[in-house]
Design a protein that fits this description.
With 150 residues, the chain is an alpha+beta fold. 36% of the residues lie in helices and 29% in strands.
Length: 150
């Protein structure tokens, strides 16, 4: 089932004339608006606006940058540093990537416009943080290859 928040985000993205896809979890418990943007540094990010309830949105960048083998410990410390530096966003590590997470307040009245504002904030944070991450881990940015399941 496509959630109410997903529909509101889709309408807001249409108004901005942004490219996106809408995806529904196979069991119908959540849906998402998925979009991608290029950062100023040249990296690209795939952003998921995931909703599991009518007014609930989790904003996720699963693969901001790849963590090279042997650098996992440095990634944890760098995420902690980034979390102290930036408000409203949380840097997280997975097995191979650093990502960014944001959550929208549940009682938000205008979900679509709030998600557009959060998208701008996320892109600004990613633009500022990416050079620091790339200095530590080097290499090319993680390039998403199609929509992942949420």
């Amino acid at each position: 089932m496509i959630m109410k928040a997903t529909k509101a985000i889709e309408e807001a993205f249409k108004a901005q004339n942004w490219s996106y896809t809408v995806d529904e979890h196979p069991d119908g418990t959540s849906s998402a608006v998925i979009t991608g943007f290029d950062l100023k540094c040249g990296a690209n990010v795939q952003i998921f606006f995931i909703s599991a309830a009518d007014n609930d949105v989790a904003i996720r960048v699963f693969k901001l940058i790849h963590i090279p083998a042997g650098k996992e410990h440095a990634a944890i410390h760098l995420c902690n540093d980034m979390n102290c530096r930036y408000r409203f966003a949380k840097f997280v590590t997975s097995d191979e990537h650093i990502g960014i997470q944001m959550d929208m307040p549940v009682e938000t009245q205008n979900v679509g416009s709030v998600c557009v504002e959060l998208l701008y904030r996320l892109l600004d944070i990613a633009d500022n943080a990416y050079p620091v991450l790339q200095k530590e881990f080097g290499g090319a940015p993680a390039s998403p290859n199609g929509a992942e399941r949420f």
